[in-house]
């Protein structure tokens, strides 16, 4: 099955109202649905309902029983009049639902996940996002086992029933697509607070968890209030119901879900306390809470017409959560982190067999399109509009978009048009960002003629071919550019925003009397790869003098990358420039610790690999370790000083304290890399004395990556200390799976047999298999054992949870970039997966495209 964007047709029948009645039971839940349907336009098409894995018990049209007629997977109902009432009754088995789509059981709860196509696993329904329906829901369940019964919207009634059962009724006044339906039943407690919206609506906020987790919900609740206020102030968006509920569940396929008024979260994005969550986890909790809340407007009030428009809500909402996080701490460090993850996840996707446009043209299984391209590149595309239009006109465009499309299912085109109409900008060429896949490359060459005081910057862009798109047109690229004088270190002119539109362009700068140094794509204004071929001296200069913090970070990272790539390709080991730049950065008192920590970290092994046509994982590891050791030893006293200087007396979650801990962990890594005899003791002492998980896991990671005698002891202590905390055990697994030392493959194979390992829990599966598959050196261990291991796990996981399995395929899909022996073994692993009888649609699409 291939679904094509061009085949979109409006629905033949609408469903303005739906009543759902659940008799909840983990073994056998009965769902009765009453759909009011209305003919949409003049036609004589039947009503088509989607269903997946449902046991149909009854079907009635206008009160009369009818025999079901199936058209493929759909139920087809011929109707004579323009308005009818359809009733269905189905049975489901939530406790046997290992896919975690539809209604399922998790840790004693019953909960749902419907996006993208899970609602059809609950009841027969036209399960497409352009059907907007008012829901009335009645839940009935055993009161002792499921004392709390939640659904979307506002609670309207509840009470006791015979036989120890009870009920609750919920009405959602906002018509919504079926993917936003949710229910939760369970023994839950709430952390509550009130929120008064700008226009005076009193909203009761609650985060629901199991009783032992209640103490870990303050951070998430605080983040929710902060996000609600921020959306009022920055986007003028207010909340619109009397209650806002969040529930944390342990078994969840991804991060979280924005169901109207009832967000459901992977518990890893809710639960946080200093002993169990790192600063990274705290930040992620706040970002995901904000993200899901922001969907209430960008996603729920204005939803998507079809799933090809997914980035309409996801790209925009990611941008909004990035802007929110930037406003809570250091915008520069946030930008560095966002670009780092774009380069780690999205650039490789754009360069590989699964490359697709931000608005795809076709899919086999929509679950496979919840990608870094849709989310993160989608956010970059909207960020570029923000850059080109400016904050004020961008806000006017967003207002117009929300006004025009409130209560409807919209398209990417609607969004761009609102931006154009509000600002007067012409975004015709810019739209190519939505249709052309692949990361554009920009070559930049700066020349200077001292005589006439002129500098010329020539730019040339190209967009690489991607599957199904052999030829590309030039894109509209906003590049923030500035020149600095090499002698004075002063800016030679104000920053310019250059919009490159043609394949080539030349920009002339006048009055350039000293040799200019080019700072380009400042702030990462366009998500492109810039080849500026700047010599090491210029990069070192920029790393010290650029006035854009992101550009400073870029300069030092590019210097490191150039050094590492030369080391791998030509065996050169000239580390002087990197050492000098790192020394200067470490000693610069004007810089904050968080920035320093990001800047002095070497590019990851896989990012180094991404720069090369042919990846040699062992050589990359060797060359990177050599530079790390050299940096560690040459700057030994600086690392010690940075380590000691970043010591805090008591845990505090603030930007300054986070930055200090980050620098402490990074410095500890270098202290360890120096090979100093006392280094393991320092790490072990930090590991034991830590009053927070950031310091403890930082020390554990340093030990696990080393050959220190105490590494196994530290792992044991960590395991026993946290053996009853699933989220921390995930760290125990992933820290070992990510270890860059020898023997990781064997350890990972062993860990897959550990009594705490299970593929049934997505977090655990990702912690071991997912983490291992991005550990470039270990995954590509000579002999192909890493590929075979991952293939075995994916084959087993596909039988339980196809969505989660399919997400882990891309590591194997990088085979073109490796030597013949590895490539063949990787292909062999993919072919073995493809040959398994009963392979899921999710896996089939990912694996077959990866082999093409
Ligand atoms: N809409 C959710 C979010 O990003 C994620 C849903 C993911 N669904 C999926 N089938 N992968 O906030
Ligand atoms: Zn989202």
From TrEMBL:
InterPro entries in the record: Aminopeptidase_N-like_N, Aminopeptidase_N-like_N_sf, PepN_Ig-like_sf, Peptidase_M1, Peptidase_M1_dom, Peptidase_M1_pepN, Peptidase_M1_pepN_C, Peptidase_M1_pepN_C_sf
UniProt KW keywords: Aminopeptidase, Hydrolase, Metal-binding, Metalloprotease, Protease, Zinc
Signal peptide: none
Keyword Cell cycle: no
Residues in Aminopeptidase N-like N-terminal domain copies: 97-180
Domain Peptidase M1 alanyl aminopeptidase C-terminal span(s) in chain numbering: 537-852
Superkingdom as given in the UniProt entry: Bacteria
Catalytic activity: Release of an N-terminal amino acid, Xaa-|-Yaa- from a peptide, amide or arylamide. Xaa is preferably Ala, but may be most amino acids including Pro (slow action). When a terminal hydrophobic residue is followed by a prolyl residue, the two may be released as an intact Xaa-Pro dipeptide
Domain Peptidase M1 alanyl aminopeptidase Ig-like fold: 438-532
Enzyme Commission number, as recorded: 3.4.11.2
Any one of the GO BP annotations: proteolysis
Gene3D superfamilies xrefs: 2.60.40.1840, 3.30.2010.30, Neutral Protease Domain 2 (1.10.390.10), Peptidase M1, alanyl aminopeptidase, C-terminal domain (1.25.50.10), tricorn interacting facor f3 domain (2.60.40.1730)
Cofactor(s) needed for function: Zn(2+)
CDD domains in the record: M1_APN
Pfam family of the protein (one): Peptidase_M1
GO molecular function, one term: metallopeptidase activity
Domain Peptidase M1 membrane alanine aminopeptidase: 220-430
Family statement: Belongs to the peptidase M1 family.
PANTHER family documented for this protein: PUROMYCIN-SENSITIVE AMINOPEPTIDASE (PTHR46322)
Protein name per Swiss-Prot or TrEMBL: Aminopeptidase N
Organism of this sequence: Sphingomonas baiyangensis
């Amino acid at each position: 099955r291939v679904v094509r964007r061009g085949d979109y047709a409006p629905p033949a029948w609408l469903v303005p109202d739906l009543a759902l009645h659940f008799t909840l039971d983990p073994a056998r839940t009965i769902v009765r649905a009453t759909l009011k349907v209305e003919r949409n336009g003049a036609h004589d098409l039947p009503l088509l309902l989607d269903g997946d894995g449902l046991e149909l018990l009854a079907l009635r049209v206008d009160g009369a029983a009818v025999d079901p007629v199936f058209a493929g997977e759909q139920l087809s109902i011929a109707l004579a009049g323009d308005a009818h009432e359809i009733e269905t009754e189905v049975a489901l088995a939530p406790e046997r639902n290992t896919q975690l789509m539809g209604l399922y059981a998790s840790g004693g709860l019953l909960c749902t996940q419907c996006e993208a196509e899970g609602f059809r696993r609950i009841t027969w329904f036209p399960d497409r996002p352009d059907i907007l329906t008012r829901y009335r829901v009645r839940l009935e369940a055993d009161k002792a086992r499921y004392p709390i019964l939640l659904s979307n919207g506002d609670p309207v009634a509840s009470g006791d029933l015979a036989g120890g059962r009870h009920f609750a009724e919920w009405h959602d006044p906002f018509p919504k697509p079926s993917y936003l339906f949710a229910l939760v039943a369970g023994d839950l407690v709430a952390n509550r607070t009130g929120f008064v919206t700008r226009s005076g609506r009193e909203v009761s906020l609650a985060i629901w968890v199991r009783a032992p987790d209640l103490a870990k919900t303050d951070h998430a609740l605080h983040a929710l209030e902060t996000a609600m206020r921020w959306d009022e102030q920055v986007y003028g968006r207010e909340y619109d119901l009397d209650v806002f509920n969040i529930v944390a569940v342990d078994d969840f396929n991804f991060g979280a879900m924005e169901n109207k008024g009832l967000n459901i979260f992977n518990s890893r994005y809710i639960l946080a306390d200093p002993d169990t969550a790192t600063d990274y986890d705290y930040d992620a909790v706040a970002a995901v809470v904000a993200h899901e809340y922001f969907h209430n407007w960008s996603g729920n009030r204005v939803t998507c017409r079809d799933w090809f428009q997914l980035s309409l809500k996801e790209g925009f909402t990611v941008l909004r959560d990035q802007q929110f996080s930037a406003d809570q701490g250091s915008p520069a460090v946030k930008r560095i982190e966002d670009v780092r993850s774009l380069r780690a996840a999205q650039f490789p996707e754009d360069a590989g067999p699964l490359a697709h446009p931000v608005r795809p043209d076709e899919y086999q299984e929509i679950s496979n399109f919840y990608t870094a391209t849709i989310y993160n590149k989608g956010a970059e595309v909207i960020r570029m509009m923000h850059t080109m239009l400016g904050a004020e006109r961008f806000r006017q465009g967003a207002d117009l978009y929300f006004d025009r499309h409130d209560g409807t299912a919209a398209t990417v085109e609607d969004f761009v048009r609102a931006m154009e109409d509000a600002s007067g900008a012409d975004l015709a060429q810019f739209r190519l960002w939505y249709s052309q896949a692949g990361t554009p490359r920009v070559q930049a060459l700066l020349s200077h003629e001292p005589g006439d005081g002129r500098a010329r910057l020539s730019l040339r862009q190209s967009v690489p071919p991607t599957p199904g798109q052999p030829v590309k047109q030039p894109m509209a690229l906003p590049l923030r550019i500035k020149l600095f004088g090499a002698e004075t270190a002063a800016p030679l002119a104000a920053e310019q925003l250059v919009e490159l539109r043609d394949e080539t362009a030349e920009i002339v700068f006048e009055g350039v009397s000293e040799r200019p140094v080019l700072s380009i794509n400042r702030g990462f204004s366009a998500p492109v790869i810039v080849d500026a071929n700047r010599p090491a001296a210029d990069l070192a200069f920029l790393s010290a003098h650029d006035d854009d913090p992101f550009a400073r970070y870029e300069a030092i990272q590019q210097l490191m990358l150039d050094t590492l790539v030369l080391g791998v390709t030509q065996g050169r080991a000239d580390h002087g420039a990197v050492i000098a730049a790192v020394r200067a950065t470490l000693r610069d008192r004007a810089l904050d610790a968080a920035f320093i920590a990001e800047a002095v970290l070497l590019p990851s092994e896989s990012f180094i690999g991404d720069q090369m046509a042919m990846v040699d994982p062992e050589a990359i590891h060797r060359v990177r370790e050599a530079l790390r050791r050299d940096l560690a030893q040459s700057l030994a006293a600086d690392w010690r000083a940075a380590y000691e200087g970043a010591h805090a007396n008591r845990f505090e979650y603030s930007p300054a304290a986070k930055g200090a801990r980050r620098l402490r962990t990074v410095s500890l890594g270098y202290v360890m890399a120096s090979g100093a005899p006392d280094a393991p003791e320092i790490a072990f002492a930090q590991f034991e004395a830590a009053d927070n998980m950031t310091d403890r896991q930082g020390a554990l990671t340093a030990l696990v990556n080393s050959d220190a005698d105490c590494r196994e002891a530290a792992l044991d202590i960590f395991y026993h200390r946290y053996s009853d905390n699933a989220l921390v055990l995930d760290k125990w697994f992933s820290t070992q799976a990510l270890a860059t030392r020898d023997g990781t493959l064997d350890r990972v194979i062993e860990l897959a047999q550990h009594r705490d390992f299970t593929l049934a829990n997505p977090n655990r599966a990702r912690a071991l298999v997912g983490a291992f598959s991005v550990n470039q050196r270990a995954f590509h261990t000579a002999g192909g054992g890493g590929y075979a291991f991952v293939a075995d796990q994916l084959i087993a996981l596909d039988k339980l949870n196809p969505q989660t399995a399919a997400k882990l395929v891309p590591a194997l899909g990088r085979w073109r970039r490796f030597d013949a022996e590895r490539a063949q073994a990787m292909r062999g692993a993919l072919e073995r997966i493809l040959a398994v009888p009963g392979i899921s649609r999710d896996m089939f699409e990912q694996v077959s495209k990866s082999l093409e």
